[in-house]
Amino acid sequence: LTLGRRLWLLLLLAAACSGILFALYSSTVGPYPATPAGARDTMTSQAFFGSNALNFGTRKSRLCRCPLHFAIQRHPHFRRLFNLSTPVLLWGRPFTQELWDSLSQHKAPYGWQGLSHQAIASTLNLLNGSENAELFAASKELRPDCIRCAVVGNGGILNGSRQGPNIDAHDYVFRLNGAVIKDFEDDVGTRTSFYGFTVNTMKNSLISYRKLGFTSVPQRQDLHYIFIPSDIRDYVMLRSAILGVPVPEGTDKGDKPQTYFGPEASASKFKLLHPDFIRYLTERFLKSELMNTNFRDLYMPSTGALMLLTALHTCDQVSAYGFITRNYRKFSDHYFDRIKKPLIFYANHDLHLEAALWGDLHKAGIIWLYQR
Ligand SMILES: *[C@@H]1O[C@H](CO)[C@@H](O)[C@H](O)[C@H]1NC(C)=O
Ligand SMILES: *[C@@H]1O[C@H](CO)[C@@H](O)[C@H](O)[C@H]1NC(C)=O
Ligand SMILES: *[C@@H]1O[C@H](CO)[C@@H](O)[C@H](O)[C@H]1NC(C)=O
Questions:
Q1: So which residues are the signal peptide here (predicted)?
Q2: Given CB 3.0 to 4.6 Å as the disulfide criterion, which of 2, 137, 309, 349 pairs with 142?
């Protein structure tokens, strides 16, 4: 294909995208396009985004039919919230006094106020490879031009959903916390590219959901871990995991990281969310009323929200499975519950706000949200 022809096709794609979105916008009176009754709720993510990609002959030239940044640019509200240039990961290279001073102004998970300089510096110094700076393979050869991601929450909506093959068909699959797979392959798929957690949520999941099948954190050679730094524990565990030594101090003292992450966990397996990114997400997308209450210091976006928003800032297309929907009462808390359990709203997260955000992002064509 000549360059000219390819550009022409790209223009055509852009026009097709805006056409679809224009049709959606013009069908509504409210600030967001409304869902045509029943239609999109049953649609698959492939139908939503268009077929996988147009194939120009080589894998390298697979292009997205409707990359999410198109949808963001066309949306009057979300265009002002998103800054896709915000650094997502924290790694060793820019560890300067300036970074320390800047992050020391905020409490965890938004910064390092009151945390040990030594513990943080010694962790970041180990995260000094290019793999730590980027979520996806740095090599352009290995990376599809249209990065299609599935983020799999643990919501009861997935029980009996038969979405496993659709989930596995994405380029990357994100999971989090009590990500039970065994016996739920048909509903949640089998692949895991990224597993996201805080040490607190990971260990709680292993305790609370062990009897329900979450007996170990997913481990695979090509799987990467995304640490959410909500506490000094996360930095200390991460450092010990890279060094392959028991945790020397703090809440998790004596823990052997290889019991969680496997015996061959080198620095390249780990990614660390940037505290500035968590603050940006919270302020722009999940600024909860809880932040004006006594629960201020307890509140943060849920692990699922942080993973979905991470995917939105790194992938070209994002499908969300197992996330809270407006009809959450129909479903159990988790897909792996043995008996139906209502979802409980604790004051550390604002799941109502998250549900509204996922619904709005879906209506805006920025994510595809699995609903039923
Ligand atoms: C987006 O984020 C980048 C990196 O933090 C920053 O340099 C830039 O000014 C931001 N853009 C806007 C419009 O806020
Ligand atoms: C990263 O740090 C380790 C330990 O300090 C060092 O051996 C290694 O060469 C560094 N790697 C890079 C890419 O700078
Ligand atoms: C999961 O779905 C099956 C049918 O697909 C149903 O029998 C079971 O009660 C559901 N489990 C929960 C906890 O709702």
A1: 1-19
A2: 137
Q: Are 228 and 278 in contact (CB under 8 A)?
A: yes
Q: Answer yes or no: is pLDDT of 24 > 70.
A: no
Domains of the chain: 65-89+149-369 (3.90.1480.20)
Q: What share of the chain is helix, strand, coil (3-state, %, to 5)?
A: 40, 10, 50
**What's the pLDDT tens digit per position in 327-370?**
999 999 999 999 999 888 888 999 999 999 999 999 999 999 99
Q: Edge-to-edge strand order for the sheet containing 148-152?
A: 270-272, 224-227, 194-197, 172-176, 148-152, 317-321, 368-369
Structural tokens at position 168? 């596995």
* Secondary structure of 89-105 in HEC code, one letter for each residue: ECCCCCCCHHHHHHHCC
Per-residue confidence (pLDDT) for residue 62, from 0 to 100: 58
Query: What Å distances lie between residue 27 and 16, 49, 77, 367, CA to CA?
Result: 17, 19, 18, 19
- Least confident segment among 1-15, 81-95, 237-251: 1-15
Cα(92) to centroid(ligand 2), Å: 10
Residue 301, both tokens: 């976006």
Cα–Cα distance between 145 and 141 in angstroms, integer? 9
Ligand 3 centroid to residue 330 C-alpha, Å: 11
Q: How far apart are CA 39 and CA 53, in angstroms?
A: 22
Q: Cα separation of 170 and 318, whole Å?
A: 9
Q: How far apart are CA 127 and CA 129, in angstroms?
A: 6
Looking at ligand 2, which atom is closest to the CA of residue 92? 1
Task: Report the separation in Å between the CA atom of 151 and the middle of ligand 1, taken as the mean of its atom positions.
Answer: 26
What is d(CA 188, CA 205) in angstroms, rounded to the nearest whole number? 17
The answer, yes or no, to whether any atom of ligand 3 lies below 6 A from the CB of 162, is no
What span, in angstroms and rounded, lies between the C-alpha atoms of 255 and 39? 50
Q: Are 32 and 363 in contact (CB under 8 A)?
A: yes
Q: Is 72 within 8 Å of 17 (Cβ atoms)? A: no
Q: What single-letter amino acid sits at 253?
A: K
Q: What span, in angstroms and rounded, lies between the C-alpha atoms of 62 and 71? A: 19
Other C-beta atoms lying within 10 Å of the C-beta of residue 334: 23
| C-alpha–C-alpha distance, residues 325 and 344, integer Å | 14
